[in-house]
What does this fold into?
Amino acid sequence: MKKIYIVYPKSIGTIAPEIYGHFTEQLGGVFYDGLWVGNNSEVENINGFRKFVIDKLKAINVPVIRWPGGCFAETYDWRDGIGKERPVRRNWWTPNDGRYENNAVGTHEFMDFCEAVGAKAYFAANLTSSTPLHICHWMDYCLSNENTTSMAAERKINGSADPFNIPYWGVGNENWGGGGNMSPAHYGNEYRRYATLMENTDNTAALIACGPNGSDYKWSEEFCRTIVNSGVKINGLAMHYYCGSAGDALNFNKDEWYRMLSQANKMEEILLRHWHILQGFGMDNRVKLAIDEWGCWHPEGSGPSKGYNLFEQQSTVRDAVVTALTLNIFNNNCEKIMMANVAQLVNNLHCLFFASGGDSIVTPTYHVFDMFKDHQGGSAIQTAVTGNDEFNCSVSVSASRKNGYTTVTLANLSAETDMEISLESVGVNLQNTADMTVLYNEDMHAHNTFEHPDTVKPFTCAADISKPFIIPKTAVVSLKCKEC
Ligand code: AHR
It folds into this structure.
């Protein structure tokens, strides 16, 4: 049996709701046929966006959504996505999938989507192929009050008299790769130039710099060295970590189950080491990590479109456990993280939804976001687990408290062994009966399809947490415990 201590005197910090954020890129089936069906569609929609997805996103309290890329941002001209006449262009992904961008979704449409969901927007600006002035004009267009600038007047003509609420602006995307293949020092200098002008345009916007690709610590170090004494504004350092695959999305054995989870578990070491670099430069008092792309990246072709939608891949019980493990890591390190955005929302990598035509379903990953949503804005509490040293037989856990309740989320990382767990709360008493939600399927490959949308879905029951209880192998569990 493992004992989980919830150590109330040891508070970690507040879990920014934005840690439960999402990422949407104009790529494959994320928007077209996924989120966006158009105003005239027979598919139920709100301002052209699929109502099923909007309703489900509202239900999990989505705090923030990043857009328009990703690499799509590297060649995106925001002017293509406003007004009545929208050009059709090759985009970043055209060489990969032969599809063209008709710009049906642009700034106004994306902001309609955020408004319908109740989420804040996080725009990724194109530092790779547009000038600082062009980005400042986009900020002017979006953020200036009515009756002030010509840009605000143009926005009003296009349907929005009031400025948009876009509190987060990314200064580039993956500038170590698709975003211009820059060296960290070169990007650092570009960041200084772009961020200076972006801050000058709107000094309330949080600016997020392009951070490292996974464990590229040299990137963080050189970037920090280049900007540390510059006085330039910076609120976030974006880190991307895709934990890849082991086997493929649907076909994997037990060894590959464990390999996948241990790759996902690397997230903690990677974010800690980047954080230590920020600390080393004395920047940790003004900069936090924004893990604005994360998730599994399996070989594609396993989703409903059978390869038509670039990067689309099925999501099994294993992806749900990766999600739970990652969100627990974020909760347990919340004082270092301003935001995280799982990649990507629909018909793509590590997605929460599959949707096409009249069909819309949620994936096991969606259910985990639902089960963890009470952590948003909670105060994270340190936990300690006995007998948890062997990774393949361990449980992942985090705990937080809010409004008189403690939420505890767990994932059994074992593909073979059910685990007996007992909880001990130190410093606060909990009522004996808690609401327990369990996501479990005896087949670790189980997943949802248009034909069988509920193969993997959670059930809820009352649990007596004063006694030991069992978490089945591969299961994700959340407990909502009332404090006495
Ligand atoms: O999410 C898919 C792609 O992965 C993004 O466009 C890019 O930023 C990353 O490499």
Notes: The CA atoms of residues 292 and 341 lie 4 Å apart. The radius of gyration is 22 Å. Residues 25, 69-71, 173-174, 293, 343-344, 349 surround alpha-L-arabinofuranose (CB under 6 Å). The mean pLDDT is 98.
